[in-house]
Structures are given as structure tokens and as C-alpha cells.
Amino acid sequence: xxxxxxxxxxxxxxxxxxxxxxxxxxxxxxxxxxxxxxxxxxxxxxxxxxxxxxxxxxxxxxxxxxxxxxxxxxxxxxxxxxxxxxxxxxxxxxxxxxxxxxxxxxxxxxxxxxxxxxxxxxxxxxxxxxxxxxxxxxxxxxxxxxxxxxxxxxxxxxxxxxxxxxxxxxxxxxxxxxxxxxxxxxxxxxxxxxxxxxxxxxxxxxxxxxxxxxxxxxxxxxxxxxxxxxxxxxxxxxxxxxxxxxxxxxxxxxxxxxxxxxxxxxxxxxxxxxxxxxxxxxxxxxxxxxxxxxxxxxxxxxxxxxxxxxxxxxxxxxxxxxxxxxxxxxxxxxxxxxxxxxxxxxxxxxxxxxxxxxxxxxxxxxxxxxxxxxxxxxxxxxxxxxxxxxxxxxxxxxxxxxxxxxxxxxxxxxxxxxxx
Length: 420
Ligand code: GUN
Ligand code: FE
Description:
Layout (H helix, E strand, L loop, with lengths): L1 E12 L2 E12 L5 E5 L4 H4 L3 E11 L1 E7 L14 H14 L4 H17 L2 E7 L4 H14 L2 E5 L1 E2 L12 H14 L6 E3 L2 E2 L7 H13 L5 E4 L3 H10 L6 H6 L9 E4 L5 H10 L2 E4 L1 H6 L7 H6 L3 E4 L11 H18 L9 H8 L1 H4 L16 E4 L13 H11 L5 E6 L2 E4 L1
Parallel strand pairs: 1-4, 5-6, 6-7, 7-9, 8-10, 11-12, 12-13, 13-14
Antiparallel strand pairs: 1-2, 2-3, 4-15, 15-16, 16-17
The protein binds guanine (GUN) and fe (iii) ion.
Fe (iii) ion (FE) binds next to strand 5.
């Protein structure tokens, strides 16, 4: 067991911060939180102490939607809109991952960078390549991340270098799943890329497989108007995009749907009823001009909303930057709608980018006794002094807006120190 000391900023609810100045978190042998307290008992005082002094102890970030094989193309093709961007840059980039050595090089770097930016849990897309997907899972696990990774399924509209036949897709998915049993903390998730990439036959098979093997599902939905029109054209018997997943049993509890930008009352009700998780990706939605999701409305109506970097639609791996982009985009929407003050606060953004994602992995709200410890230690002593003592909350807000890699001096994942 051990004790960690610092200024603890806990997101105990949507928009609710609980701050413990010079507080203590006691960890048990397994890395689970045994106590969060202002005062240690005599017994706890005898445990080894990691004293972080004036530094901030925050929840680590959770990136609920990103594309690993797009990491090398951050910031590229940003003048295009979704479908052109996919066809011009993205599919060609992903096709490179038939080369396992190249995959190793990129994924090592990605895994290390995620930890350096304080992200410890992920729900991630690989490419359609089985071998490279295992490499990705290995590298994430080695770096100390936890999460779900999907071998992508796509048996139509991919182009020459990035498409499987339906038969190959099924065969490779089974082979991939067999090889996933060796991983402890990185688990497989069923990943039809999005409806335009998968035939009905493949979707149906994937839905049944997910059900039989008790696997979660991730995909994309309602990202861009052109894409929504394409889905209507491809699946004329479904009135709504979500029904193209529901039809094949993939619209269910813990299914992660990236985007959900263009969304109406009926679709919101469908999300809520099935407990589908929205991975909102503000940076990506602005970069490729997809639109602005009504995030605050979704949360207020009871939808489970989390955040994703969606690299490389998003151009930032840093979830602190994704949080601030999320806040800014909610402000743009509030201004457009002339709804004064109806935007995300810093505390709300922090909740969405951390705890709301940690809940996907079974954690509670805030730093809870019994949960695995996932945290970052932030040192802001490089910042210009205000010439007065700042409150912990002020320092926290400044860091969410201005956090650099160098400010993250330690990272804990599954109770273990993986950086610092
Ligand atoms: N929809 C289907 N594939 C993708 C992708 O790679 N990125 C984004 N942003 N949207 C998608
Ligand atoms: Fe995406």
C-alpha cells in the first residue's frame, strides 16, 4: 500500500468539482483507491508517502474515439470535408498498415505520446489489418494503457488498397479475436467502420458475433450531412442512421457512437433508451466542417456523453486541448442560438473528458474508494505568477486551458506509476 499527497481536483459530478487541498489518496496493493482523505490515520501515516507538494492531482484523461493508423497524418487534408478527406488521404494512410514494421514504429510512438499527454484509457480504431492490430494492442499494453481496440471491418466503398471481401472480413475478425486472448488490459471491440463501409450481410454477422461473445461495439454516426444522405441511399429501408445499427443488434448498452452531430429529438431518445455512449469529437467536427453537436443539450437530456480526439480528423492528441475545443464549440453554438450562458463550463468539460469516460470502464464519479487509480500529476510552477496566491480551482482552470506535455510530471494507470 502507499499514499499520494497533493492538491486533489475530483470531478464528482457533471460540473461539480470537489477540491482537497493537501489531500491524501491511499492506494491498496492492487492499485485500487482505499481512501481519499484530509487526515491520515496513525496506521496510514506509516505507509510509504509520495508527496507531490503543491502540485495538482487530476483524473487522467479518457480518449473514447481515435484512429491509431491516422496518427502520422495529423493536420493533413484539413481543407476537405469528411468523405473527400477519407477517400483522398485517410484510406491511403491506413493502407500503409499492411506493413507490420511500420505499424510497430507508429504505434510505439502513439502509445508513448498518449501516456505523456495523460491519457490512460482509450476506445480506439485500428485499421482492417489483423497483424497490425495485434501490434497496436501490444504497444498500448506495454506503455500502460487500458482499453478497447477494434480491428476495423470494411467490405465496401474502401477503394483498391483498403477493402476486404465479406469472407475475408469474417475470417480475419475471428483470427484476430483468437489472438486477443493473450492481452490483459487491452480488450477487443467489434468495429464496423460505419454503415457506408459495411454490407448488410457483414453487419448482421458482426452483430451476432458481438452478442454471442459478449463484446462491445463502436462505430460512427451522424457526423456530416453528406454522409447521412449516403447512408439513406445505401440503406433505404432505414429511416434513420441509428436504425442501420439497431437492425443488426448493435444498438445496445455500451455501444460507442462517434460524433452524433446532426441529431434530433427522436435520435436523442433512441440514444438514451439504449444507453449508447456518444463520443463527441469537437476538434474533428470543426476541422472537417462536420458541424457542432449540441453536447450540453445531450447531457441535459440524459444521454451518456464522452469525448474523443478522433485523430486525425482531430489534430490534437492532448485531451486537455480537446476539452477546451469542446468548450469553445459549445460556446459557438450558444452564441448562434442566442442562448446566453448555455455552454459547457470548465468543470463540465473536465467531467466529460475524464470521469464520463472512466465510467465506461466501471469506475464511479470522482476518485472513488474501490476504483483503480487513474490520475495525472500536474506541475504548473513554470507559469507567470499573478503576484498573489492563486486558489487550487484557478490553477486547475488555467491548466485545463494551457496544459503542455511538460506540465504532466507523473501519470498513474491502473494504480501503477507509468510516467515520472
Ligand atoms: N467515418 C468513417 N471513418 C471515419 C474516420 O476515419 N474518421 C472520421 N472522422 N469519420 C469517419
Ligand atoms: Fe472517427
